[in-house]
Amino acid sequence: MSLDIVPRITCIEHPGAVHDVDRAILTLGGKDALRKVTINSGGQTPLQLTLCPEDRFSHPIVSRSTAHGHSIVLQVKVKKTLLAQHGGDLRKTLEAHRNAYTVAPCAIVNCFVRFREMADYQYTTINSPFVSSIRSSLYSGDLDAITQLTFSDSQPSATDFDMPPPPRFSRITVPFDYSYRQNPAVHAVTDSSGATRLVNKSIVQRLFSKVVRWTDAAVPDESYATKNLPVAKATAANPRMLDIIELLRTKFEERPIWTRRALEEEALDEELRHIWASHVKFALPYVAFTWKSGPWRATYTKYGIDPRKDKKYAKYQTEYFRIAPKDEEEGKRPWRTVPLKDEEDVDDTKPPDVDVPTHIFDGIHLPAGRSFQLCDITDPVLAELVQHGGLRDEADEKDGWYKATTMSKIRRIIRLKLMALWNGQSIKQMDVAKILEEASDDEAVAAAAAAAEQSATEGEEDARATTKDEQTESNEKEVLHAVSAVSQDGGQKLRELLGILQQEEGEGERGFVDVDEYEIFDDDDDDEDDDDDDEG
């Protein structure tokens, strides 16, 4: 049979489950609408699917037409008795009786009308009095009913708001393409009991670290881990959990405050260093908390210990240095253990083969870290400052227990030596000596007091000089008056003149600066005063 004589038709795909054909045609706009699509426009005129055709204000779904590809509508003829034997299932009937049916093409579909848009939000107006009046007047076509239509002048209340809905609620007609797919990191795992469960192997294990800021009033005590953390136990991912916790407790009894590098170098063996990220850091929250700010920033501190309350924890303060070397742009960086050269050193062709821990700063070898605890500084000059530096009465957020000048000297000397080590340069010991010779906090206070005392003394001296000038001016006036009267009474006036001159001469001798009277200008005495202030 030739397909040229087979009729061409338009296929309309109704998105609903059709049980009533007439009702389905009514939701598409009726037979007139179908005729326009199938006959007049060849499927190019869109159809409007109204799920509630009785309501003119219901929002329709607009169709889209496509002419890609062709489908053939087949007519299959089979006896009803055979179809009844298989419960009306045509597929089973054809499979059971392969030679008991005939097939012939009856139509070719050259256009498909499909509804792929999302349905808009619906607002029913069946029970709306206002819409009912419009429906019975405007939509009826009765002129008398239209002229009798009136609108109320009163404003509707929020609880009795009655009006037709807008033409459309949602502007989105096509569903989003979320590209749902199976997570490639999720795998089916069979546990020891034989049950299968899904496990995400890429999920980050939660870390229960307790972070404390300098402004916090108190630190967590030893009961924090018991009350707030899950019970520690050995797992398949961390079988040594309990052993690591016990080891950390022992180490924190020996030293209550650690940096990570110090803990790795001194407390852990080689195996635990390699499994820090997967094992050790998850055991630390059961033993210690960490500081986010303050002089002990980025350290692990044993639960119940507040270093802000006792000066004995001053040596555990941390200092962090950010260095921008001159040769960084050229990509030059010396070896990790480049020795620090003195002015007399000349043989610097190769560094010594010395393995220095990364958390130790000895002032000779370049460390890998940039954060140091004061107790881990072995440089003799710096260690002396740490051991004998002046301490405060209360801890400071920036300098901790040490006084500002002491911490300033420590920071400047470390930075000076780090820069020299980084750039492979020699350092002048005179530069270190200049930093050490700077005044301490007590010396700065004493110098300020001496300056204030000197300023007050100079003020008194200026006042005394002003008084003497006024007295001298008064004496001059008396002399002039006596001289003018000599001609009147020569003998008596001359004796008075001589007496005034003698008096002025005596006062002039007393006008010179006496060393014993102004001892503050004597250098030796000034040094002794400074020494007395230091002792006080």
Which helices and strands, and how do they pair?
Elements: E1 8-12, H1 21-27, H2 31-40, E2 48-49, E3 61-62, E4 64-66, E5 71-78, H3 80-85, H4 90-96, E6 101-114, H5 129-137, H6 143-147, E7 186-190, E8 196-200, E9 211-212, H7 224-228, H8 241-254, E10 257-258, H9 260-267, H10 270-274, H11 276-283, E11 288-291, E12 300-302, E13 318-320, E14 371-373, H12 380-388, E15 391-396, E16 400-402, H13 404-423, H14 429-436, H15 441-484, H16 490-510, H17 523-535
Parallel strand pairs: 1-6, 9-11
Antiparallel strand pairs: 2-3, 4-6, 5-6, 7-8, 10-12, 11-12, 13-14, 15-16
Helix pairs in contact: 8-11, 15-16
Structural write-up:
This protein is α+β, with helices and mostly antiparallel strands and 536 residues long. 37% of the residues lie in helices and 13% in strands. The chain contains 17 helices and 16 strands. The chain has helices at residues 21-27, 31-40, 80-85, 90-96, 129-137, 143-147, 224-228, 241-254, 260-267, 270-274, 276-283, 380-388, 404-423, 429-436, 441-484, 490-510, 523-535, and strands at residues 8-12, 48-49, 61-62, 64-66, 71-78, 101-114, 186-190, 196-200, 211-212, 257-258, 288-291, 300-302, 318-320, 371-373, 391-396, 400-402. The strands form six sheets. Strands 1, 4, 5 and 6 form a four-stranded mixed beta sheet that branches. Strand 11 (288-291) and strand 12 (300-302) form a beta hairpin. It is elongated. Residues 325-351, 482-491 and 500-536 have low confidence and may be disordered.
